[in-house]
Amino acid sequence: MASEGNEVPPVAAPETVEVPANAAPQGKMTIEEALEVVLKKALVNEGLVRGAKQSIKSLDRKDAELCVLCETTEEAGIVTLVEALCNEHKIRLIKVSDSKKLGEMAGLCKIDREGNPRKIVGASVVVVRKWGEESVARTTLLEHFGSQ
Question: What are the angstrom distances between the C-alpha of 84 and each of 41, 55, 60, 79, 130?
Answer without folding.
Answer: 27, 13, 10, 9, 21
